Amino acid sequence: MMEDPELAKIGKRLLFQSRAHVGYAFLATLRKDGAPRLHPVSLVHSYDRLYVLTPPASPKCFDLKRDGRYALQAFPPQNNQENEEFYLAGRAAWIQELAIRHALIADTKIRVEESEVLFELLLDRAMHTKLVHPGTPGEYPMHRKWRAT
After folding, report:
1. Residue 18 main-chain phi, psi, to 5 deg
2. 3-class SS at 18?
3. Count of Cβ atoms closer than 10 Å to residue 59 Cβ
């Protein structure tokens, strides 16, 4: 998403509203039967990459290991006066290399359970939506989109 640094900056602001390295979002995954499943998650930002840590027995962990496709929606800002949303989608990669895990912990100072499974969220697309003229008859959504090439 570095091809659109302004969109990356907006996404970082909306995903990481209260802490520099930890953000909150809703993560959609696909169940074994193909039905969607939605989970609140904590995101970790380190070295310009996004990660999710999950308990090994969680449904989202099973979903991401089996079919890494995901969609992610940032939690709405508390005072969403800008009437904006941020969305990402792509594939999650299961990271098993201990060096990456240790670097992430050292960089962010987050507490991680030994058993938690680490996934990197690889980006295929992003979208920022902002309502123009909210609450009026002329209200409409304005979208800023990015797609991996």
Report:
1. -120, -15
2. coil
3. 14
> What pLDDT shows up at residue 58?
96
| Cα distance between residue 4 and residue 122, in whole Å | 16
Amino acid letter, 129? T
Output the six-digit token pair for 56. 């090994």
Please identify every stretch of the chain with a pLDDT value under 70, giving residue numbers as ranges.
1-2, 80
Judge whether 63 and 30 are in contact, CB under 8 Å: yes
The answer to whether residues 142 and 129 touch, using CB atoms and an 8 Å cutoff, is: yes
Domains and CATH numbers, the chain: 5-147 (2.30.110.10)
Measure the CA–CA gap between 41 and 54, rounded to whole angstroms. Answer: 9
Residue tagged 């990456």 (tokens): 100
State the Cα–Cα distance between residues 103 and 82, nearest whole angstrom.
35
Identify the three-state secondary structure at position 91: strand
Q: Using alpha carbons only, what angle is made at residue 6 by residues 80 and 12, rounded to the nearest 5 degrees?
A: 55
Residue with token string 């990660």: 51
